[in-house]
Amino acid sequence: MGEVKGNRRLPIIIGMFEAQAIAIEIEKIVPNRPMTHDLFKSFAESFNFSVLEIIISDLREGVFYAKIVCTDGTQTLEIDARPSDAIAIGLRFSVPIYTFENIMSEAGIVLSESDDIEDDSIIPDEEESSDSSPLEQIKKYSYDKLQEMLDSALENEDYEKAAQIRDEMNRRN
Question: pLDDT of 84-107, one tens digit each?
Answer without folding.
Answer: 999 999 999 999 999 999 999 999
